Amino acid sequence: MAEVLIEKLTKSYDGTVKVLDGVDLHIAQGELVFLLGPSGCGKSTLLRILAGLVTADSGSISFDGRNIMSLPPEKRRAAMVFQNYALWPHLNVFENVAFGLRMEKTPRKEIEKKVMESLEQVQMERYARSAVTQLSGGQQQRVALARALAVEPALLLLDEPLSNLDANLRDTMRREIKRICTERKLTALYVTHDRREALSMADRAGVMHKGKLAQIGTPDEIYNHPADSFTARFLGDVNGLPCGGGIRPERLRISEEKGKLSARLLERAFFGDSCEWLFEVPGAGKVLVRELGAPARTIGKEYFLDYDEAFLIPAPESDDEK
Ligand code: ADP
Ligand code: MG
Hints:
This protein is of the alpha+beta class.
């Protein structure tokens, strides 16, 4: 596993729009780093550049201090897992996983061992001789992951690997990918537009905006102390307050007696384990409050909302975003 250093990476496909505009990123050895961002912000482009499938216009990438920009894909040892699995339909599970090893001319005995170990890691060893076309989406993604693991990559690249799976399976796979990355001490860069995936799995996560990394930090840092309102809003709901700052719905407390804001209750939405209340706050408009459970409250009644100043988020007006 390698330490990865990306410096001032830029890329434009058409010579005008900079898809990547000076991306700097350091990934420590064994670290699982997430990149989050809306569709079209350049996440896949960055992964493809790291894998050697797309050429950057400028900047540098090094693995363990060695510049790899001029190396072809097969010499980089950066293995990629794609959203659509990208398995070879004419090869069975074993041969799909063995593919990279055969390209590297690995001895046959070793191929057998590494393929079966990788399939065990993703709990697919029973399917070694199955046709990939007969597998479910989740099973195919496990095979794709095994294929990436088999080559013992210096850097594992994951491009929205769970986006095609249904919600329950996504939760399971999230835990498994996290477990495998930890067990194998993988250096990995995982790209997604799903903030829950990033916040729940990442050692550190970065948010991409306008071709740059807007902010990178631990999930707690970027969620609770976002550097700007783009990052704040990308990671979760934010209420604007009369003071100009914002605050997350779960950081507001509802009281009948006292609080910083007076607020009239407009609506209730019940989710079983939690509840969302919509209030009208003079000077702020609609304010959403999220709380566990669902105590009885009266629609139309005046309440107070209170919060801890430490959780105020920078106002949108202070960004160039507007
Ligand atoms: P993301 O993965 O974040 O959705 P991409 O890296 O796929 O974003 O794309 C970033 C931008 O670059 C988009 O505007 C996309 O249309 C454009 N783009 C991606 N690949 C190509 C390509 N091969 N040729 C031209 N434009 C591309
Ligand atoms: Mg993409």
